[in-house]
Design a protein that fits this description.
It comes from Sphingomonas cynarae. With about 110 residues, this protein is mainly α. It contains 2 helices and no strands. It is about 95% helix and about 0% strand.
Amino acid sequence: MKKFVVPALAAVAMLAACSQNAQNETSEAANAIAADTAATTENATADVDAATDRALNSAERSVDNAGVAIDRAADKTGAALDNAADDAAAAGDRAADATGRALENTGKRIRD
């Protein structure tokens, strides 16, 4: 117990010996540290907010770009389907014409 009391009394004596000026300087240093900590925290928060905004804006642009790409692909697919339908209709017309000619030719041969 005596081993603990002696250092504690020495610490109390040292604190009591501190002048008012030393106590004021210590208090000012503590205030400066607190202000620096607050400023650092505020800057870190601003940095995180800015990074978050940039990330969200980038994600939004990516989604918008994907939407544009999907729209373009849908337009191209629609155009390709239109062309295929036109080609199929033209082929059907040619087949009908060829069938009609073949029937006409067959009819002429039968008559002759």
